[in-house]
Amino acid sequence: MAHTLYDFMRWEHMINVGVVGYGTIGKRVADAVILQEDMKLVGVTGRTYNYRLEIAASRGIDIYSIETPSQLKDQGIKVKGNLKDLLKKADIIVDCSPKPCGKENIDKYYKPAGVKAILQGGEKNDAAELSFVAQCNYRDAINKDYVRVVSCNTTGMCRTLHALDKAFGVKKARATLIRRGGDPHAVTRGPINAIVPSFELPSHHGPDVRTVLYDMEVFTTAVIVPTTMMHMHNMSVVLKKQPSVKEVVELFKKTPRVRVIKANHKLGSTAEVIELARDLGYKRGDMMDICVWEEGIGLYDGELFFPQAVHQESDVIPENIDAIRAMMGFKDQEKSIMLTNISLGI
Ligand SMILES: NC(=O)c1ccc[n+]([C@@H]2O[C@H](COP(=O)([O-])OP(=O)(O)OC[C@H]3O[C@@H](n4cnc5c(N)ncnc54)[C@H](OP(=O)(O)O)[C@@H]3O)[C@@H](O)[C@H]2O)c1
Fold first, then answer.
1. Could you tell me the pLDDT band of residue 5, with boundaries at 50, 70 and 90?
2. What's the pLDDT at 67?
3. What's the confidence (pLDDT) of residue 247?
4. Where in the chain is the domain with CATH 3.40.50.720?
5. Across residues 126-142, what is the average pLDDT?
6. If you placed Cys at 291, which of 2, 124, 309, 320 could pair as Cys (CB 3.0 to 4.6 Å)?
7. How far is the CA of 323 from the centre of ligand 1 (A)?
8. Which fold has domain 152-310?
9. Which pLDDT value is given to residue 4?
10. Residues of the chain with CATH 3.30.360.10
11. Which residues line ligand 1 (CB under 6 A)?
12. What is the mean pLDDT of residues 6-32?
C-alpha cells in the first residue's frame, strides 16, 4: 500500500468534526475538514433556511438543526437531528456562529456534552482557554478543550510580526488597519461612500494580537472603507536587530502562509490579489496567505515599513484545521501546518 504523508500520525481513529454555523467561515471550515485525511466531517448545523444548506445537502453533508427543525423541514431540507445529536457524533466542534453565540454555545451545549470546541475571532478572548494562531502558539493549544481562533486581522498581524520577532526581535510594532466594509455578499453592511475612522485608541486589534503574541508591544488604529475584497494593514516595526530590506523579503518568502507579491507584476491592489487567487484556481477565489508587497518593504530611520493584504473570509481557515489537531493531541506543529497547507493547496 502506498504511504501517505499522514502515515506517521498513526491516528487510532479519524477526528470527527462538527461545524456549528454554516456561513462565511463555517462553510469554508467544513470544506477544509473534508480535505483532511485524518478528519471526518460528521455534520453541520442549519438555523434558518438558506441556499447554502441546499448545496451542503446535495454534497452529502449531514445537516442538524439548532433547536426545532420545522423551518428547515418545511423547506425540504432533510435534517439528521438536532445539535445535541450532532454532539454525540463529534469529538470536536468548530463553532462558526456570530458573536457571542459561540461562548453561549459552550455553556449551553458543548460543556454539558463533554465535547471540545473552537470559537472564532468575534468572541472575546476570555470566552475560551486560549487564543490561537498556528505559527505562534500551536503548542499551547495541545489537548486544550476550548480555543479561540483569532480574527482575520489579528491572524494577519500575528503571522508577519511573529516571523519578524523570531528573526530580528520586535521592539515595537504599529499598524493602521484599512478594513473592508463587509464581506462581498453582505448587502446591509457599509459604508458605501465614506471612510469611517475608529475612535478607539488603540483599536481592539492591537490588544487582540497580544492574546497570541503575549509580550508584543503593538499599537493599532483603524478605518473602515467601502470595499469588500480584503483588509489592508500598513505596518511599521522597530526591530532589535537591523536587517536589510533583502533579508526581510527573504524572511517573508520562507514564512508559511505569507506570500510576497510584486506590484509591478500587475498585482498592485487588493482587487488584483483576489484575481490572482481566482486565476490560481483557489476555491471561491480565497487567498489564505497574507500578501506582503515587495516594493512596499522599506527601512526609514531604523524603522521597517510594509503593507500587507488580508483576505478576511479565508485566512483563518487553515488555523481552524491546525487548532483541531492540536486540541486532539497531535503534538507536531510543523507537520500539522504542512499537512494543512498541502491539503488546502496553500
Ligand atoms: N466573515 C469574516 O470576514 C470573518 C473573518 C474572521 C472571523 N470571523 C468570525 O467568524 C464568526 C462567524 O462569522 P461569519 O462571517 O462566518 O458569520 P455568518 O456568515 O453570519 O455566519 C454565521 C452562521 O451562524 C449561524 N448562527 C446564527 N446564530 C447561531 C447560533 N446561536 N448558534 C449556531 N449557529 C448560529 C447563522 O445562521 P443563520 O444564517 O440562520 O442566522 C450562520 O449560518 C464570527 O465570530 C466572526 O467574527 C468572520
1. low
2. 79
3. 98
4. 7-150+316-344
5. 98
6. 309
7. 18
8. Dihydrodipicolinate Reductase; domain 2 (3.30.360)
9. 56
10. 152-310
11. 20-26, 45, 47-48, 50, 66, 96-99, 101, 105, 120-123, 151-152, 183, 312-313, 316
12. 86
Q: Which of 19, 27, 47, 312 to mutate to test the pocket of ligand 1 (most atoms within 8 A of CB)?
A: 47
Rounded to an integer, what is the distance from CA 203 to the centroid of its chain? 19
Q: Give 250 Cα–ligand 1 centroid separation in angstroms.
A: 37
Nearest-atom number in ligand 1 for the CA of 119 is 45
In DSSP notation, 48-102 reads: S--HHHHHHHHTT--EEESS--HHHHHTT----EEHHHHHHH-SEEEE-PPTTHH
Whole-number Å distance between alpha carbons of 262 and 276? 12
Catalytic residue among 96, 101, 136, 152: 152
Q: Are 208 and 267 in contact (CB under 8 A)?
A: no
- Overall average pLDDT of the 202-211 stretch: 98
Residue 20 has pLDDT above 70, yes or no: yes
Residue 1 — very low, low, confident or very high, per pLDDT cuts 50/70/90? Answer: very low
Q: Taking the model in full, what pTM does it have? A: 0.96
152 a catalytic residue: yes
